[in-house]
Amino acid sequence: MSAASRAGQIAAHLNYPSGLLQDQVAIITGSAQGIGAEVAKAFAREGAKVVISDVDAAKANAIAKEINNSGGSALAVPGDLLNDSYITTLVKAAAEFGNGKIHIIINNAGFTWDAVIHKTSDKQWDTILALHCSVPFKITRAAAPYFRVKDGEPRNIINISSTSGLHGNAGQANYAMAKAGVTGFTKTIAKEWGPAFGVRANTVAFGHIQTRLTAAKEAGAAAVLPDGTKVALGIPSAQAAAKAGGAADKAPTYPDIPLGRPGTAEEAAKAVLAVASPLFSYVSGQTISVTGGRNI
């Protein structure tokens, strides 16, 4: 048998659609920029109908427009995930967009609000735990009627974590606690909804990915809370240079990353796409580290 014939048999056996996520409906939180936006675009290129969830309405609408203008299918549903009524609205809109079905949830939204333990305020603690733990739980709970079904179609949930949740990180007790919690939640979904409904649930834990969270703090990126509080994002240049093994005025070397560089948002999105795709159809309850080899 020729290699081409064998490849054809394998493809037929796996029953790939024309796109890896063809006609699947995906809610992607925090998808107006950074990794989330790249996930939305990658999913749309593979045939998914993507729901753009983000607190920044202008950016959410822009990403949806970009996808739709490129031949994909996207719906922007902007809003504040810390508002329970918005979560209800988001799930309802996604189900209507999908003609009564939702197949994928990517719990990606979040940011960091750093401080050493003894200087972390209750507000810093509560906000980060709510956004990274309570919100994924509430979205998943609200979407349960669309996942606890037996229609023969794939369903999966991917919770985004971080190496901070796997190994801890000085100055990030709140973020590390939240991201560690995500792993336990993922495993519970896999155990509860896998046996009867075939739902897959996995965690993707990122290392150093180039986003506004790892950019120079001096660039001025910020997250704005509902009460108007501005949370500065990024890493001070001197601190980032020290971690990367160089001075602030020299090119970093990243000695702790075997691949020798940070990852891009596009690379991060491809990892999420792989986990969501039928290529990972027998993988559930796992934490996949996307780190360039860091922490091995």
Q: Quick recap of the structure?
A:
With 296 residues, the chain is α/β, with parallel strands linked by helices. It has one domain: NAD(P)-binding Rossmann-like Domain (Rossmann fold), CATH 3.40.50. Helices cover 42% and strands 14% of the residues.
Provide structural commentary.
The relative contact order is 0.13. Residues 5-14 have low confidence and may be disordered. It contains ten helices and nine strands. It has 296 residues and is an alpha/beta fold. It has one domain (18-211, 264-290): 3-Layer(aba) Sandwich (Rossmann fold), CATH 3.40.50.720. The protein has helices at 3-14, 34-45, 57-69, 84-97, 122-142, 144-147, 163-167, 173-197, 237-243, 265-276; strands at 25-29, 49-53, 73-76, 104-107, 156-162, 200-206, 222-224, 230-232, 287-290. It is 42% helix and 14% strand. Helix 2 links the parallel strand 1 and strand 2. It is globular, with a radius of gyration of 19 Å. The strands form two sheets. It has a seven-stranded parallel sheet with strand order 3-2-1-4-5-6-9, sandwiched between helices. It has a two-stranded antiparallel sheet with strand order 7-8.
